[in-house]
Amino acid sequence: MGLLRKVGKQEKTCAQEKVFHERKTRMVTTSMLHTSISSSSSSGFMGVECWHPDENRVLNIRLSDLSLKGQFPLGIQKCTSLTGLDLSRNKLFGSIPANISKLLPYVTTLDLSFNNFSGGIPLDLANCSFLNDLKLDNNRLTGNIPLEFGLLDRIKIFSVTNNLLSGPIPTFIHSNIPVDSFANNLDLCGKPLKLCPGVQGKSHVGVIAAAAAGGVTFTSIICGIFLYYLSRGVAKRKADDPEGNRWAKSIKGTKGIKVSMFEKSVSKMRLSDLMKATDDFSNNNIIGAGRTGPMYKAVFSEGCFLMVKRLQDSQRLEKEFVSEMNTLGNVKHRNLVPLLGFCVAKKERFLVYKFVENGTLYDKLHPLEPEIRNMDWPLRLKIAIGTARGLAWLHHNCNPRIIHRNISSKCILLDGDFEPKLSDFGLARLMNPIDTHLSTFVNGEFGDLGYVAPEYLRTLVATPKGDVYSFGVVLLELITGEKPTHVATAPESFKGSLVEWIRQLSDGPLLHTAVDKPLPGNGYDHELNQFLKVACNCVVENAKERPTMFEVHQLLRAIGERYHFTTDDDIMLPSDTGYTAFPDELIVATEVTKEVE
């Protein structure tokens, strides 16, 4: 990131500014910034735009998709006239500077999407009064969205999708921000999303109309409304909710409720024990988040660890929920995360799982620092086979049979021996009423983006072949090292998904180039080719042409036969080869269980 600190260090003319120095690495950085400078060039660097060829002021910096590493470049403040900054689709991490308005006082467009920024969204961004476009999506941002953002009267584009945000969203008076700009977060609320707890659906339209009739300026109206919210709401929220767990305070009166445990070997506990072990469900204890809700690490005084999931938006009454939990408590397999117990407290639903110490497959494949990724081919193959075994068992041998519906690398956990454990199985039905048969995919809530089978757009019905597709995307992640929604090694002009990239390569002789660079040439090339074929078969467009999970498991097991990963397989040949009958299946209603084949 030193290259960015040098931008504006001494604002020479743009033609002379040699900001970007080539690094002798394979990582795409400055050498891709078109370093050739013609004698008549005014700027000489693509991605850097000046006010005028002979001026000394940088207007825009666009460094998207260059695999840049490091934290936010504080040296950018030297570019005192900067209005546009695009650092999207890189590998930047750390927090967004708390004084960002001082670094970028005139910024109109700020794009930090598709990075690994963490921490809270700085309140100071609300002081960037010229902002038109603000893109913070696809990071790891936590906490609340500052309500003061509603005061940004020029904002037209705003996106925070795919983060870990919670709490009320701002009301943008001057803009119509679409609902999908907030999709795939922990627990955001407020119009146009779900109503926030304890908030009455009152309208201020009458107030605005009356004030306007009285000659009060529109700006005064806005300021009046927001000053009310900021004085009554924001200050209280910050004082009362520093850890992002305000909701937990509402259940403190239920601390004495017992946790229903399925395992006799686990000590009896109460909700108070879970709250103490998770620091009252502090955001600092979140170790994962997905469609079904956040997962917390619970640390008990005797030194043991558990995982606690707070189920998001459960649609089940307590009696139905308890019945579902008693069913899932009996679902046991070595490649499933053991469900140890559950707890109901008012409207909250908590699930207690065995702690799985090596985290998610997603975090192992896509660490903040790519250099620390240390996954050789046999390990990746072991994870693929174990996950396929668990999913095939759910589809074919579990009673009742279960469609997962939320398969992603984030719900595959790795134990101390890197044996994969599927989490979130059987929870999808708890998220939506079974008699609707509809997902909420159109609202960005059906599965993780990049893993959703194309037929869902047409049928909106969960099927086993949909799980096969999602698992195929995981296989592609394993063999390419790429994220499902962003292919870092693809040309800059390519903006599609990992599956689309693989299909594009499949049309020519370059499919083998998609394999993660450290893997070929180590004696595994034949296995890599066979594995890639299985993955491609899983993600074909037509669901009828995809294999069953039983077949996928058998194919992967054959590829890894020489490693002797397992000798005691428990996946039996299904009696119905097309597995069209799911009479007791937990997710899809009986009248729509005819397989989309």
TrEMBL record:
Its main location: membrane. It is a single-pass type I membrane protein. Pfam families: LRR_1, PK_Tyr_Ser-Thr. One of its GO terms (cellular component) is membrane. The chain crosses the membrane at residues 205-230. GO terms for molecular function: ATP binding; protein kinase activity. Keywords: Leucine-rich repeat, Membrane, Repeat, Transmembrane, Transmembrane helix. It comes from the Eukaryota. Residues 281-556 form the Protein kinase domain. SMART domains: S_TKc. It is found in: Membrane. PANTHER family: LEUCINE-RICH REPEAT-CONTAINING PROTEIN DDB_G0281931-RELATED, LRR RECEPTOR-LIKE KINASE FAMILY PROTEIN. This is Probably inactive leucine-rich repeat receptor-like protein kinase At5g48380 isoform X2. The gene is LOC105115271.
